[in-house]
Amino acid sequence: MIYRRGEEKICRGYIVAKKDDSSLRKSVYTTYTNIMIPIQYLQPPAITSDYSLPIVKIADDWNKDDKCINADRFNADHLIISGSTYAGTASTVTVGQTLPGGGKAIANGTYPDVFNNDTVDSSFGITSPIFLQEITTCGTDIRTIYVDPSVITTSFPSKSELALNLTPDGKGLTFMGYVSAINQLDVSNSNTPGITEPGNPVTTTATYRAVAQINFDDPHFIYHGFLTPKVTTTNAYPGNNGRAGILGSNGLYYTVGNAGNGNGSPAVTAAAGVQIVIPGQNATPSTPGTNQVGSFSITQYGYNIADKTAKDNNFRGETIFNNTLYVTKGSGSNGINTVYQVGNAGSLPTLANSANTPITILLGFPTNLAKNGKNVNGTVQPIYYPFGIWFANATTLYVADEGDGVAADAATSTTAGLQKWSLVNGTWQLDYVLQKGLNLGQKYPVAGLPAADNPATDGLRNLTGHVNPDGTVTLYAVTSTISGSGDQGADPNEVVAITDRLSYTTAVQSASEQFRLIRTPISGQVLRGISFAPTNKEKDGSGEDFKREH
Q: What whole-number distance in Å separates Cα of residue 458 and Cα of residue 331?
């Protein structure tokens, strides 16, 4: 953040940043894991179309040992947020040009109107550079560094992408993206080089999906000022997108995503859902590189007619807890929107057993159909939209619910926000839903964004959390939005935090708990994943946090 003369930021009574002159723009150097990195002060918001040079942003409060603490007063760790900045210009799209997914463009490449093209091309999207922003837990900006766009990019309006997961040793982060240049159209619905789907209208260059891993104890993780991840390509998720990748303790990546944008095929079905990707083993057109883990069907829960198998496995959130993989489904009109366990408790799937790995709904979580809300007995029940999940312990699970994406429903939703579930006698029970302070359905202004496009919060997407010594839990989440935009995934969104007492099980007990804003929206930027910052600490506790080396 850049502060004007005399401005200060206060968090729980502490001055955490102060700067006398926001007009300063200079190059400095700082040692970062034994590398000298050029740093520039930049005035946000920054919508930059030229990514031929690295863009690295630091806060004015470069002292990592500032007095910033969050509201729980125990956790002073830093957070990493993944996101993207729109890099297109007016010439990226020309009015009247034929779009890859069909239809003719009704808007040029200028943000935000460019995404009105989604109304004529349902596959419309534009690839953009990925950034990782480091902030303190009360929102003080530390630095933003871009991932090398020649290595991996994201699709700017694809709201379900770029989930962040820590590696098992806590020293690295993983996420998914595309091996594509920036400002390419409809890549998120392209085929992959090894799998071509019949009927997919997007017939432009087939594009690998990829898992990226950034190891912060590697002295070469920054090169020429860009973050340079190790990337493993896959042919999984043709016609759609990979959402998340997480490294298991067994050295395998577990990914989740959607597949299919046309007529489907056995190969497309086998490339959906949960996949195993072997780090460093890149896919080729002749070696698809897909290893599907299990396959869920609604018939497992008593429904007589099978749904679209690929779409039943349209997973988007994932976590590993106690060496068990969990995933969520919360979008699309097929399957069941709920929380799933993949494999047996305490045992991650392997290549040897992946084909027969069971995928089951956690007992007590919804089993009604996403398309109409009906359960197996025909009774209509609320439809949930789970996204990120985080275990506080073996009997407490927090679920971020995105909301249904309908503006008229946001303010009255009873499920959107942060759900708290407790395991009681072997069955999960919904304790309550935290919503206070999210201001669901209420538009918020964004500097530089036309008022007509101002978004409102609809719920939450990815999240992480921390158990505090006093018996509370502090959770951090990325918001979902609704707006009048042609594609709500392109809306500027926020990061919020809330502290919940772990022992609470009723809405009455938690009535005073309220979300607070820790990362404000910026026009031309979208926020996707969130994680605690990696460290350089060994498992015995030696070493220092990477974020404090400078």
A: 14
